[in-house]
Amino acid sequence: MSYNLLKGKKGIIFGALxxxxxxxxxxxxxxxxxxxxxxxNAPVALRMGEINKLxxxxxxxxxxxxxxxxxxxxxxxxxxxxxxxxxVDFVLHSIGMSLNVRKGKHYTEIDYGFxxxxxxxxxxxxxxxxxxxxxxxxxxxxxxVVALTYIAAQRVFPDYNEMADxxxxxxxxxxxxxxxxxxxxxxxxxxxxxxxxxxxxxxxVKGFEGFISYAEKMxxxxxxxxxxxxxxxxxxxxxLTRMVTMQNLFHDGGFSFTGVTQTVIEQMEx
Amino acid sequence: MSYNLLKGKKGIIFGALxxxxxxxxxxxxxxxxxxxxxxxNAPVALRMGEINKLxxxxxxxxxxxxxxxxxxxxxxxxxxxxxxxxxVDFVLHSIGMSLNVRKGKHYTEIDYGFxxxxxxxxxxxxxxxxxxxxxxxxxxxxxxVVALTYIAAQRVFPDYNEMADxxxxxxxxxxxxxxxxxxxxxxxxxxxxxxxxxxxxxxxVKGFEGFISYAEKMxxxxxxxxxxxxxxxxxxxxxLTRMVTMQNLFHDGGFSFTGVTQTVIEQMEx
Amino acid sequence: MSYNLLKGKKGIIFGALxxxxxxxxxxxxxxxxxxxxxxxNAPVALRMGEINKLxxxxxxxxxxxxxxxxxxxxxxxxxxxxxxxxxVDFVLHSIGMSLNVRKGKHYTEIDYGFxxxxxxxxxxxxxxxxxxxxxxxxxxxxxxVVALTYIAAQRVFPDYNEMADxxxxxxxxxxxxxxxxxxxxxxxxxxxxxxxxxxxxxxxVKGFEGFISYAEKMxxxxxxxxxxxxxxxxxxxxxLTRMVTMQNLFHDGGFSFTGVTQTVIEQMEx
Amino acid sequence: MSYNLLKGKKGIIFGALxxxxxxxxxxxxxxxxxxxxxxxNAPVALRMGEINKLxxxxxxxxxxxxxxxxxxxxxxxxxxxxxxxxxVDFVLHSIGMSLNVRKGKHYTEIDYGFxxxxxxxxxxxxxxxxxxxxxxxxxxxxxxVVALTYIAAQRVFPDYNEMADxxxxxxxxxxxxxxxxxxxxxxxxxxxxxxxxxxxxxxxVKGFEGFISYAEKMxxxxxxxxxxxxxxxxxxxxxLTRMVTMQNLFHDGGFSFTGVTQTVIEQMEx
Lengths: 270, 270, 270, 270
What we know:
10 helices; 44% helix; homotetramer; 270 residues; six-stranded parallel beta sheet; 6 strands; globular; alpha/beta
């Protein structure tokens, strides 16, 4: 299936860890739709080596970058522009990391040093990426940036822990930077708030399986898959959505506007 | 420009009055993207005759229907399914009418008989359309329904008058029916909250020009045009957005999440 | 317990059916806080006779009014102002009725005649009350109007049926009229979105018990009771909340911003 | 004016800098309503000496604490509990600081070291305060915590700069910690989103005067004053609002749900 929706477009995809990653699937779909890509991830993630398979499949160079290191980001954009021989049309930010979650710290007893890293890597990294592009004028007019987020930014899901706060911060950065980039260069910036997805990263969250099954029961269309999300991102990178900006777009089978379903009520009555 | 995004899809477009209409532009774009169409509008609107130009351009039959008449709606779906020789894949609801606005009644002195008509035509008509399709099982699995709305459903724009309440009702019907249709048949239903647009209908609103210019100054990307909206609707009718349902999607150049712009502040300081 | 928060204030309470009613409890608390009251309800509800007990307890006249009858409303305000020998300081709108719910009609098969009555009685009645007061200049400067609503206006709870749409309309009327009344007379208008409450009216909703128990498990503080709601309304009628207007205020033990609780997850895993 | 709404309650007030501060006014009103207080602020703010006037007026000790220093916070709660001879019933968090704003850095060129301080002092400080209380079990059952915030957390006001992101983070911490504290101890945590207010801190924001006048014109009731905010906080600390938690409560004269006013449209047409 290809519509050539992204024909001639150049994009940077952050965060493809392995074939379960939404970023991985989005890279594949963007490539099918005619885009030319650069893949980036943290040096530590690159060492796993999986990304090379993807790089081959989508004919893209892999350029490592620590998203909290401004020199790395600058180099990434420089090399990308050289590779594309042009500016960048779209960016996918699929980046999140919480040492407090990894170490099993309860929200009420988080380590504040870890928390600072969580906020920097998972949220302020979007500011860092955009600001690097801004300084270099690296994103083309009518470019599109999408960052992946989760509904815990709006409502509490206890096991999501401090990542909820990080996602709220990420969504605010999206709006704030979105304003400036729209005014200056017609660049749009949005978040996609995706159903819980069985990725390698997602599985690290405590109680994830119970939660994914609850979300499935609570979504009139069921949970959106990673493939679905990739398709949706393609529309957001295309020229057909140019006037959508500073939005948080729920891509979740209806979960976000469902108070309760018949299925959940029945389960509760057991 | 065509991506064949809607190749093989069949859709009903309500509300194309003349070439300024968003529904008109959406019909053109859907046709370009490969869809087969039926056009519908109120008998009184059809009498203007403009729609025949569109019908010719998109090779579609015109089937009149009063959206508050259940027999009309049943006939519309029957004839459409006969024409398509299949069920319907998408529906655009671009319908609104307020006698109170037309007659220049202030919000605090509306006629309640007129108001009842406003709510019925502008909001409950969506329920009537969906319920007709539901009873006839007329929409195909993974079908997509979009209704056009306006941000006055969330925040007060005084001149928008009782249409604000009608749009709030429309958005609620979208969620309510969206739940049931998703559970039963994977059909998704969303509203698009569009920038103020210079249509023949829109121009009827008092103070419209002042308002459209305010919205332009208040939108980081500027106001979204009817053509932009048509493009966006195409993505929502396509297979790439299957898991988006029960949402109100702002298509407004960033207006909805902008508190104030530099341009507005400067104008205020004059 | 009395703080004299409403000392010297005059209020009209709509919708006290019996001692389980939130309006009943609010009347009692307003009286304790020093307010002078008029009680109103539909003629058919008055015939039950229960309200006379309340009238005695709070030393208030009972004035019947069909809220969709403008003459009734005019008479109500006239008699109230005569009784108070002054304008009105606050109004509680606790009114809702759905024949479709009563008759067990599924949302996808509602009777549109009944629906029109539901919208008129449950939502547009607020406009009718406010407009009557507006025309007569019956509400004092810095007056406060509260209407009771439910979160189904924002998210789908299938059994709540068409009342969800009615509440969405009610909340929009609150904003729309709230704007005008604030500008003209500093009157504020808000909705309180209350936990599901075991009232005689609420019990009519299908699956109510299952739902109230779900809401209890889903609210970090548990469901708010009718007494709690009465207390909250007292603060909104007092002089301490003068600048709060056009808001929908959740009074629900945290339900509205909770995505899931540990208790619900555990129940789901059974 | 006193209703004894807070009779017998003990509260800690953070952030009273001088008599223009909302925290200052809230302390005065809480004292009038019968509360016993402890005042706290950063050591550097205390050195100004103004707070001693307030301390005298409300008969409260001043206990300095750097809100990002866990030892300081622990000592503050220990000394407060000793002073009260009991646990704490309410807390006001009125704390915000941005070096990037002070130094006039544009949002697109913020210093990330400064930004980390902004987030820590303006948002994570609420987590630190709550977590200190949580570890010491310092807040009584049904206690109430209020943090002041601003609507820039939801919509972009360009001059508010990185403080918008900090407030979004603050509001998320409110929800996240609010969940846990409700479940464990019935403690409620909310933010109040206040109109722009002429405080010494607020005045530091670039373009503040232009903005405050815009907000005045855009608010149907006008801007809420610091005194109004103090009154509102009193209701939130009282026993009448026990079931309100995890909410962001707009206290802004209707600004948040107003899309445009007649006054603004007229100004725009000049």
